[in-house]
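Summary for the steering committee. One of the milestones for this cycle was to obtain a three-dimensional model of the protein with pyridoxal-5'-phosphate bound, which we needed before selecting residues for the alanine scan. The sequence and ligand used are listed below.
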Amino acid sequence: MSTPVDEEALKRISAELEKIYIERTRRSRELFERAYRILPGGVTYTVRFMKPYPPYIERADGTRVWDIDGNEYIDFWMGHGTHIIGHRPRLVIDAVLEAMGKGTHLGFENPYAVEYAELLSRVVPGLEMVRFANSGTEANMYVLRLARAYTKRKYVIKIEGGWHGGFDLLHVAVTPPFTGPESAGLLEEITRQTIAVPFNDLDAVEQALKKHEVAAIIVEPVLGAGGCIEPLEGYLKGLRDLSYRYGSLLIFDEVITGFRLAPGGAQEYFGVRADLVVLGKIVGGGFAGAGAFGGKAEIMELLDHIKYKDPRSRSFHGGTFVGNPISMAAGHAMVRHLSQNRSLYERANSMWNSFRRKVDRVCEEHGNICWTTGAGTMVGIHFTRARPRNSRDVYELRWSKTGEMEYLLHLYSRINGILYVGEKLAHLLPSLIHNEEEVGKLSSLLEELLARVAKGSG
Ligand SMILES: Cc1ncc(COP(=O)(O)O)c(C=O)c1O
């Protein structure tokens, strides 16, 4: 199939839309100029940058955010996927205010952490023991150290396009060409200990397991930042079998999928058990300091200083803010609510399944120029020649080689009151409380854009 749309036409449309964006975001533009002088790149986190400058958001409520120019947006990004029941839900705010009245950070063992750990072990399958961390990155760092300590093996298998945070061992093969370190300052001798394989490819995993002494296979059960791609039938179960056969641990990075696909995350949703699970985002109830890892007691016990008295015989984990009452109270209120309101999942997952079916139909009518992927409230939109099954497909099958079509969708959404992060790759992490009308607005917008692109390049 030849490129369905002329790139020059796409660029012309983007230029027109950019003009509209600039007219509406005068104050954001001024703030970006100030920000650029003091924050590298003008941003706090590069993924939040948007061309030509980001809208600066000052307020959020429910499913909406407002920028400093007063523009309102439906938020399909929800604090990087943390706000599963909308921005600042009352039940979480109340729990945090109550905890804060007794101290913001106690710095000692406290009942909040024990109660939250007990709740998590009831909700998350196989979570016999758990420890808290300050972020998903941090939880991944400690979980891999633990896996190496337990198996006494060196290598790690990760998935191409998989994002686990900026920790050295996993900051590998995130974007094309999926080889070598992803950042300046990362050492090849460290990143060589990580073997990256394509998602949904069990043969590649088996080859790597045959060749290396692998401590752990770490996988996002639904690929997140790499394109929101769902596992093919039997893939996760296949990983489970391979890990048993070759004596490696299976780690599910459920920083996105945890409490999102189901209260018990991907393990519950897909019915496959990992040895260890990494949690983040929602586990902090929408507050900073969101991270945890846990699983089989037999493995987690390697963190136990009473059993393993010599620090060198156990695996270290800790941190000033771990188990602080704010994160614990917020997370506890959130997870309790989610586990008691399972119908939220049925409604939202079915609504987004309908969205995917509807958009796929529209894409088909336009000559199969786009595809949706994902599971539940994880949604990928791809302008590719075929449905992507892994992150290589996401990039290599793109028909707009400059990424202009992906940018155009983002810009068109932005000026029509829809916001998400990822102008290079549309991956949405909506809440469970977005309504039909909001989801319908997104599909109509995509339909309008496809019509406009077809006309513009015709
Ligand atoms: C699957 C996954 N793992 C780990 C991380 C890193 O978490 P954090 O940003 O809290 O360090 C992310 C962040 O987006 C993620 O999506």
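Key point for the committee: Residues 90-340 form a domain with the Aspartate Aminotransferase; domain 2 fold (CATH 3.40.640.10).
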